[in-house]
Amino acid sequence: MSDAKISVTFEQDHDRLDALFHSFQEQKRKDFAKAKEAFVEFKIGLQRHIVWEEDVLFPKWEENSGMAEGGPTQVMRTEHQMIGQCLEAIHEKVQAQNPDSDREEQRLVEILKSHNMKEERILYPSIDQVISEAERAELYQAMKEIPEERYRTCCGSGHA
After folding, report:
1. Which residues contact 153 (CB under 8 A, 6 or more apart)?
2. Is the pLDDT of residue 155 over 70?
3. Tens of pLDDT along 94-144?
4. Is CATH 3.30.70 the right assignment for the domain spanning 6-148?
5. Closest CA to 125 of 3, 35, 2, 9
6. At 154, is the secondary structure helix, strand, or coil?
């Protein structure tokens, strides 16, 4: 992580995750092993992204903006739960080596598209406005210090 604005870092992570998920979708009926690799990286990356937001970014934004209850972060947390449910439904199919996850994928894509747009257009720019450079550095450091066990589970083990 760099000293880039929160919006830049998190939008780049969205793009990276979108590319991994697209790779999974493209490969799942051609080369399932390759598709599974992309899915594992996507799932772990998305879980890490959500942990970063919920454990580090959202509390700081709520503190600095004074908008904790009923604010945008509450909506984002609810959507994170929905994203997690979709992710697990796809994960179950991947574990069973079943490529027929189109319906589950479509649901996830629909939620993520709306969710990411709200984050990128509203929440991330707002976070950049309410934090200082020193706070941003502290946020990045706090993200680095989150133990991998908080997000690094996929396909029945600690990693792949």
Report:
1. 44, 47
2. no
3. 999 999 999 999 999 999 999 999 999 999 999 999 999 999 999 999 999
4. no
5. 9
6. strand
